[in-house]
Design brief:
- By secondary structure, this protein is α/β, with parallel strands linked by helices.
- The chain has three domains: 6-96, Rossmann fold; 105-301, UDP-N-acetylmuramoyl-L-alanine:D-glutamate ligase (3-Layer(aba) Sandwich); 310-439, Protein-Tyrosine Phosphatase, Chain A (Alpha-Beta Complex).
- Helices cover 32% and strands 23% of the residues.
- The chain is built from 15 helices and 20 strands.
- It has helices spanning 14-25, 38-45, 62-65, 82-89, 97-102, 118-133, 147-151, 165-168, 195-203, 272-287, 292-301, 329-337, 376-383, 395-405, 427-439, and strands at 6-10, 29-34, 54-57, 70-73, 93-96, 109-113, 136-140, 158-162, 178-181, 214-218, 230-235, 243-247, 250-255, 258-263, 310-315, 318-322, 343-347, 366-371, 388-391, 411-414.
- The strands form three sheets. It has a nine-stranded mixed β-sheet with strand order 7-8-6-9-10-11-12-13-14, with helices on one face. Strands 15-16-20-17-18-19 form a six-stranded mixed β-sheet, with helices on both faces. It has a five-stranded parallel β-sheet with strand order 3-2-1-4-5, with helices on both faces.
- Helix 6 (118-133) packs parallel to helix 10.
- The longest helix is centred in the first third of the chain and has 16 residues, at 118-133.
- The chain is globular.
- The termini are far apart.
């Protein structure tokens, strides 16, 4: 990839800063644009450690954007912004960090996407690969930008990355050697014009693959887009001639006339959604000939990640779970499926545009629904008739209400099904706040 002398980086999150460092190492003149005011960005800008740049802060101006022949977007920046459309009409190249980084990488890339389960699956594959091959880079949307691998001196045998739909919007030549699509359900409809547009963005992960590459996909997904790679499926409800599937408590992997089995009960990860994540990971690992014993050892000890149906404590017979990572309705549905007993559900946050009605069948086990945040009235309108429903001012009040309603044997589940940005910095801040409140009871 040819990088021009002047490049504009839009969005100053962790990815934007990493891109700026890379461009500086390449001797390029850097522009930085962000809709926040410069004074609000000072804690971020100090992390550049004296790297020279031209700042374009506050409301975006097309005049600023036209100063650069290339624009690189951070994942959180909407590629459909009018200023970006106009810049593109003037012939300015607009790409994302994934496209930039992958152009400088020769090693095999394993990329994982899906509405839910991306981080768990990426981390599980990464841990197994690290045990098997030692030198593995794990990153992408998981919190370690791919461009950091390009900047770093250490080389890896394999690169395992999580990819979001936002990152896939701006690819052109990006081609993973193996691409995984875990699932698709309504999400980010506050950004996409339709569910079809969101689905199209997800399927772009396969767009540039060839018959020499691998595609791993959930058997429940229809192939709405052409896939040129060698296709393998995983399923929790159907036996497969080739692929990975669950049958009678055993997870099977059938490949190249060989079959491997793993006891589902030996994994600490709970829920059918995690069974899907594990099956996808098993399939990936055996496509790369990881030894069965290595896979088994990691699988039996991998306890998952924080904020994903995470047990917090049991108090007077009531168990609390932190599922703050549930930023869409399907994630909450999956969490409810994985829990037995009566549930008091705490939910709410910033609405993302999807329907809450898909939770109707799951509401049978919800003893009470406690709502907070900007979306509380909308959730109440769609689900309030199915159980006792309460609206509270903040998360502290919600936890206290749930605690007073509970009795021994109940489960209090914090699974917001919304984004966190109305009240918290991110889902991690939200989850840690919940845990602090619960620990103080």
């Amino acid at each position: 990839m040819r990088i021009p002398d002047r490049v504009l980086v839009v969005g100053l999150g962790e990815t934007g800063l990493a891109v700026a460092r890379f461009l500086h190492s390449m001797g390029r003149q850097i522009g930085l644009a962000d809709e926040k005011a410069e004074k609000d960005l000072m804690p971020v800008l100090t992390q550049l450690n004296g790297i020279p740049f031209t700042g374009h802060f506050g409301p975006h101006s097309i005049r600023d954007f036209l100063m650069y022949p290339m624009i690189i977007l951070s994942p959180g920046v909407d590629s459909e912004l009018p200023v970006l459309k106009e810049a593109k009409s003037h012939g300015i190249a607009i790409i994302g960090e994934i496209e930039l980084a992958s152009a400088f990488i020769q090693e095999p890339i394993i990329a994982i996407t899906g509405t839910n389960g991306k981080t768990t699956t990426t981390t599980l594959i990464g841990e197994i690969f690290t045990r098997a091959f030692r030198d593995v880079f794990i990153g992408g949307n998981i919190g370690n930008p791919l461009i950091n691998y390009v900047i770093g001196e250490k080389r890896a045998r394999y690169i395992v990355i999580e990819i979001s739909s936002f990152q896939l919007e701006t690819i052109k030549q990006f081609k993973p050697n193996l691409a995984v699509l875990l699932n698709i359900s309504e999400d980010h409809l506050d950004r996409y014009r339709s569910y079809e547009d969101y689905t199209h963005a997800k399927y772009r992960i396969f767009e540039n693959q060839t018959p020499d590459d691998y595609a791993v996909i959930n058997n429940n997904l229809l192939l709405s887009h052409t896939i040129h790679a060698r296709l393998f499926r995983f399923s929790t409800d159907t036996g497969l001639q080739e692929g990975a599937f669950l049958k009678n408590g055993l997870m099977h992997v059938r490949l190249r006339d060989k079959e491997y089995t793993y006891a589902r009960s030996r994994s600490p990860l709970v829920g059918i959604h995690n069974t899907e994540n594990i099956l996808a990971a098993l399939l990936v690992c055996h496509l790369y000939n990881v030894e069965h014993t290595i896979v088994e050892d990691v699988l039996h000890t991998f306890t998952g990640l924080p904020h994903r149906v995470e047990p917090v404590r049991t108090l007077r017979g009531v168990t609390f779970y932190n599922d703050s990572k549930a930023t869409n309705v399907d994630a909450t549905r999956r969490a409810l499926e994985s829990i037995t007993g009566h549930v008091i559900l705490i939910a709410g946050g910033r609405d993302k545009g999807g329907s809450y009605k898909i939770l109707v069948d799951s509401m049978k086990k919800v003893k009470a629904l406690i709502l907070i945040g900007e979306a509380k009235e909308r959730i109440q309108n769609e689900l309030g008739e199915y159980t006792d429903t309460y609206i509270e001012h903040d998360l502290t009040d919600a936890v206290m209400r749930a605690w007073h309603l509970s009795k021994a044997g109940d489960v209090i589940l914090f699974s917001p099904m919304c984004s966190s940005f109305d009240m918290f910095r991110d889902y991690k801040h939200r989850g840690e706040t919940f845990k602090t409140i619960v620990e103080s009871l």
